[in-house]
Amino acid sequence: MIALPDVVVDAQIYSSNNSVVYRGIKLSDRTPVILKVLKQDYPTASELTRYRQEYEITRSLNLEGAIKAYSQQEYQRTLIIILEDFGGESLERWIEQRPDFCPMPLSAFLSLAIKITGILGRIHAAGVIHKDINPSNIVFNLDTGVGKSALVQELYKPITAKRGYFVSGKFDQFGSNIPYSAIAHALQKLVQQLLGEPDEQLQQWRSRLLAALGSNGQLIIDAIPEIELIIGKQTPVTEVGVTEAQNRFNRVFGKFIRVFCSESHPLVIFLDDLQWIDSATLKLIELMVLDEQTQHLFLIGAYRDNEVNSTHPLALMLER
User: Fold this and answer.
1) pTM of the predicted model, to two decimals?
2) pLDDT tens, 183-197?
3) 5 vs 197: CA distance, rounded Å
């Protein structure tokens, strides 16, 4: 994973023989970005020239449907192109995630095909020829009627205007036995954002967190180890029974979350693939939603409705 001073890298989303692509957030204005990195550790002069030309060509295209290039910068011995992130997914990735949608219905296929050819036509009219058209290079969003990420990305604008924080986590089909995995991953990203803020502001967060957590800081460190970088080492907590330990964690976690939820900096948490949520996280979310003391928190969840029937724990919770 790469490390840039003004960008929190979220996840790798694509890799080829020539480049690696990441999603991230610019800390200065909390804008979502795509990072395209020239893969070679020791690129040749011709490879560097080709990458610079790619950036200049992309930047010159001011066309609807074409991704905007923000900047290019050197990184170690290679180059990074920083691009617009409009919340889309590659067609290849989307097909992999939605095998139930293959083959694609004719109406959806024709709509997508018409839009792709229209965009390519405008790019060709600008004097640019794309020599590698394939599903991994075709990116789409809600304009084609699919792509939940685009809807979530639209939330960045009002959140940024309010100087809020936006983090996301994703449940895994094979990690449902790991409690809190997705929400812990989301809050790890929040800690990374805080660590990129000025020292004075970071000290304010430290004071607020210590005041809220009291002698229970180690409980949060156990779930989100990165928080120790802000609050420092904490004393071990007293051993208690299983039920009491669960209740204590839920209570302390609620206090932890409330530190980041205020009118001056609201918190938005997006949790994807809730069909694979674990029971401990489901209970924690229910408590967060019902907690009247927690204000300025916006929880967004997404799940595959064909995998959540009426007896699924998520469906049962939503009915209450």
Assistant:
1) 0.61
2) 999 999 899 889 888
3) 11
